[in-house]
UniProtKB/TrEMBL annotation, chain A:
It comes from the Eukaryota. GO terms for biological process: microtubule-based movement. GO terms for cellular component: cytoplasm; cytoplasmic dynein complex. GO terms for molecular function: dynein intermediate chain binding. PANTHER family: DYNEIN LIGHT CHAIN TCTEX-TYPE PROTEIN 2B, T-COMPLEX-ASSOCIATED-TESTIS-EXPRESSED 1/ DYNEIN LIGHT CHAIN. This is Tctex1 domain-containing protein 2. It comes from Perca fluviatilis. Belongs to the dynein light chain Tctex-type family.
UniProtKB/TrEMBL annotation, chain B:
It comes from the Eukaryota. One of its GO terms (molecular function) is dynein intermediate chain binding. Homodimer. The cytoplasmic dynein 1 complex consists of two catalytic heavy chains (HCs) and a number of non-catalytic subunits presented by intermediate chains (ICs), light intermediate chains (LICs) and light chains (LCs); the composition seems to vary in respect to the IC, LIC and LC composition. The heavy chain homodimer serves as a scaffold for the probable homodimeric assembly of the respective non-catalytic subunits. The ICs and LICs bind directly to the HC dimer and the LCs assemble on the IC dimer. DYNLT1 and DYNLT3 compete for association with dynein IC (DYNC1I1 or DYNC1I2). GO terms for biological process: cell division; microtubule-based movement. Pfam families: Tctex-1. This is Dynein light chain Tctex-type 1. PANTHER family: DYNEIN LIGHT CHAIN TCTEX-TYPE 3 (PTHR21255:SF20), T-COMPLEX-ASSOCIATED-TESTIS-EXPRESSED 1/ DYNEIN LIGHT CHAIN (PTHR21255). Keywords: Cell cycle, Cell division, Centromere, Chromosome, Cytoplasm, Cytoskeleton, Dynein, Kinetochore, Microtubule, Mitosis, Motor protein, Nitration, Nucleus, Transport. Belongs to the dynein light chain Tctex-type family. InterPro entries: Tctex-1-like, Tctex-1-like_sf.
């Protein structure tokens, strides 16, 4: 990622990482790709990888310049088990943020988390 | 842009992070069985502990640590991540750990501060 000489130490309000917008991006893609899908252990590795890439590209195109992105997709089978997922971040709370979404149907569940970190 | 020769800054050391994370998981859930009322506490402590240990290393990184704890019922689980960053200095490390009754997957993402 090239650094440009703007010396901006924090983004203007309109260029900030907006969780609401990113959550919408995630929602659209996940609902479109996973509605009606059944958990299939052969397909799921490829599916989760392509979901992660698709979401990353969509968020990139939403115009968050100077943000480094991390997209994590977790897909699991529904078998009545309990699962708990949590995350902690050490970053600049002023400039960095995250968005997440959970999708469930009868045979699988999918958790997506997108973290954005500002590149000073 | 000029390349400054940096002696001590390399890319993210994922083996070292791997060791740190494994040790944190063992310390928090080492001998326990899955319990729905404790799992909140566990994930929070694993994540906080990993973060504090990583920060102690004193490297110029921002960290994102995620942890998923799942009961063993024969169900399958897949995680994938896609990252848009500078591959020369940023990095990640994922640790999968299990015992008799549960799986624990911890991911650490380190983003460099220029």
């Amino acid at each position: 990622m090239e650094g440009s000489d703007t010396y901006l130490i924090r983004p203007n309000h309109q260029y900030k990482f907006k969780p609401a917008i990113v959550k919408e991006c995630i929602r659209e893609i996940v609902r479109e790709r996973l509605s009606g899908m059944l958990y299939d252990p052969e397909e799921v590795p490829e599916l989760s990888r392509s979901l992660a890439d698709g979401i990353k590209d969509k968020v990139k195109n939403a115009g968050f310049d100077r943000y480094k992105l991390v997209v994590q997709v977790v897909i699991g089978e529904q078998r009545g088990q309990g699962i708990k997922m949590s995350s902690r971040c050490l970053w600049d709370a002023d400039t960095d943020n995250y968005a997440e979404d959970v999708f469930m149907n009868d045979s699988l569940f999918c958790v997506v988390a997108v973290f954005g970190s500002y590149y000073y | 842009m000029e390349e400054y020769p940096n002696g001590n800054e390399g890319s993210f050391n994922s083996e070292e992070a791997d060791g740190v994370v494994k040790e944190c998981i063992e310390a928090v859930v080492g001998g326990d069985d899955y319990s729905a009322n404790q799992v909140n506490k566990w994930t929070a402590s694993i994540v906080e502990r990993c973060l504090t240990q990583l920060v102690k290393q004193g490297k110029p990184y921002k960290y994102i640590v995620t942890c998923a704890v799942m009961q063993k019922t024969g169900a399958g689980l897949h995680t994938a991540n896609s990252c848009y960053w500078d591959t020369a200095v940023d990095g990640s490390c994922t640790v999968r750990w299990e015992n008799r009754t549960m799986y624990c997957v911890v991911s650490v993402f380190a983003v460099a501060i220029p």
